């Protein structure tokens, strides 16, 4: 059974002017249950990440600032969120969701965190709606238990996973692969192990060829034991924070390429949702639901 980690802490009440589509988490779950793709039994509330897990990636001084609320205006503005204690609890829960999804995927081949993909978070600060780096914390936890294994991070969000690239720049057991908009946030890019910058004019066909060719080549070269898939849907043509113009159908086909490749190779994958900021909330939810639907078709 595919396990999807989610709880109500993932939803956070934000000021009306805030542009982050927080409702997408509850609506994606509701849609997947309504249409019969999954049932309530597939959804599991994760335990929050522990301090011992968080500190393997994040500086103690940064964790202390978050817990005490002792952040500067610049630090709060940089995070993209208004500070609250509920925000910190949310991020601990989301990070715990990706850790839980890691071990569920080892048993069931695929598992989901119905949030996460917070790839802009650095060890000592937040950026771009990312407070803790859930994939990095989960990967460190995995490597603590399996120190001889190899991880491949497949980051297909429209924004480069700069925090993840920075965190693992000197870690040979984690290969970071990012396909992202060349002229999009963050303006200063870090160096992933493999970066594929996309021009604003990238077509559906070009995009899908890039994903397929590089994913297959990397699996053969890196030989990963485990994969983290950041499945952001902010590549869509009507995304307010994206600049590439990929269709809904091509976004779904991208997910098919990833899952079919990993299913055929027998490599377990933990999936984090990543970004999605289309001008219509229903399009964000539909694109995210497609990721779950494709996996359901293959793995169950």
UniProtKB/TrEMBL annotation:
Query: What's the source species for this entry?
Result: Salinivirga cyanobacteriivorans
Q: Name the family.
A: Belongs to the histone deacetylase family.
User: Is-annotated flag, keyword Hydrolase?
Assistant: yes
Q: Name one GO molecular function term.
A: histone deacetylase activity
All copies of domain Histone deacetylase, residue ranges? 19-290
Query: A GO BP term, please?
Result: epigenetic regulation of gene expression
Domain of life assignment: Bacteria
Q: What is this protein called?
A: Acetoin utilization protein AcuC
Which of UniProt's keywords are assigned here?
Answer: Hydrolase
Q: Which Gene3D superfamilies match?
A: Histone deacetylase domain (3.40.800.20)
InterPro entries given for it? HDAC_classIV, HDACs, His_deacetylse_dom, His_deacetylse_dom_sf, Ureohydrolase_dom_sf
């Amino acid at each position: 059974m595919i396990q999807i980690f989610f709880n109500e802490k993932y939803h956070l009440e934000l000021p009306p002017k805030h542009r982050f589509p927080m409702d997408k988490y509850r609506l994606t779950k509701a849609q997947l249950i309504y249409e019969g793709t999954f049932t309530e039994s597939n959804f599991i509330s994760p335990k929050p990440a522990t301090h011992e897990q968080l500190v393997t990636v994040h500086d103690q001084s940064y964790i202390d600032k978050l817990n005490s609320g002792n952040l500067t205006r610049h630090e709060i503005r940089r995070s993209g969120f208004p500070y609250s204690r509920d925000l910190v609890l949310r991020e601990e829960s989301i990070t715990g969701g990706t850790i839980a999804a890691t071990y569920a995927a080892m048993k069931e081949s695929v598992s989901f965190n119905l949030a996460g993909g917070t790839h802009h978070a650095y060890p000592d600060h937040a950026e771009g709606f990312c407070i803790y780096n859930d994939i990095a914390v989960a990967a460190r936890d995995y490597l603590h238990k399996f120190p001889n294994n190899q991880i491949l991070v497949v980051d297909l969000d429209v924004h480069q996973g700069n925090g993840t690239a920075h965190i693992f720049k000197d870690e040979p057991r984690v290969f970071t692969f990012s396909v992202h908009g060349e002229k999009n946030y963050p303006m200063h890019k870090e160096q992933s192990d493999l970066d594929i910058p996309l021009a604003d004019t990238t077509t559906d066909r070009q995009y899908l060829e890039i994903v397929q060719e590089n994913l297959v080549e990397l699996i053969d070269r890196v030989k990963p034991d485990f994969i983290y898939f950041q499945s952001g849907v902010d590549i869509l043509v009507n995304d307010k924070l994206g600049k590439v113009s990929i269709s809904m159908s091509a976004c779904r086909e991208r997910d098919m390429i990833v899952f079919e490749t990993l299913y055929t190779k027998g490599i377990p994958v933990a999936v984090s949702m990543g970004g999605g900021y289309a001008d219509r909330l229903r399009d964000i939810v539909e694109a995210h639901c497609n990721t779950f639907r494709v996996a359901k078709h293959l793995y169950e």
